[in-house]
Amino acid sequence: MQAYGLPLRFYVDSLRIFRFVQGRDSVWRKHVLQTDEADPQWKQVMQVLGVEVIHALSPQAKRKVERPCGWLQDRIVRTCALENLSTLEEARAVLREEVDRYNNHQVHSATGEVPGIRFTRAQKEGNSLFCPFSLPKPYTSPRDVFCLRERRIVNAYRRISLLGHEIRVPKAPLHEEVELHLIPNQAYQILDIRVWHKNHMLQSTTLPLEGIRVHF
Predict the structure, then answer these.
(1) pLDDT tens-place string over residues 167-188
(2) Which one, 13, 32, 84, 174, has the greatest CB density within 10 A?
(3) CA–CA separation, 15 vs 33, rounded Å?
(4) Which of 1, 11, 128, 118 lies closest to 66, judged by CA?
(5) Are 42 and 17 contacting, i.e. CB atoms less than 8 angstroms apart?
(6) What is the mean pLDDT of the chain?
């Protein structure tokens, strides 16, 4: 998104990464939340950026997405078999080559044009619904957009609990909800935490990354 801009809409299926879907209550379990009453982490990012999300409700509806993916999968498997490639690194190299060929060299059967050239021309002519990436207010860093989000209530001691750790938030009002922006840093094995309350960042802190799990 930072490289190519923001789309008007994202067309996805109902995979749990994209959408919370709950089944019917049963004698074994009582559901608290129903479908779409909770937003996965990916969908929260789309909402912050103002990108509309549309869910395909049947395999037929998302066939336009599935066909090129199936084509790429077939090409990758056959290329790896013909060239005796067996590692993930080798397969990733084939994937990059096939994606580049599909986007920048191969003429699309439906449009009769190379997708990359068609997209570039549409942007130059103002016929694209992509818009340049810009930070939504009140954020001043992409880290507050492309992050994991959790919410916590500040207790009477101005502390919150996160993943088995207690964090002191001296500037937060008592008994109010704060939003936590979690940014995993693999290089340093730490979790950067930025605490927000009503469009103001209160503080930034870190926790060890080891053993931390976040529900998507």
Answers:
(1) 999 999 999 999 999 999 988 9
(2) 13
(3) 17
(4) 11
(5) yes
(6) 88
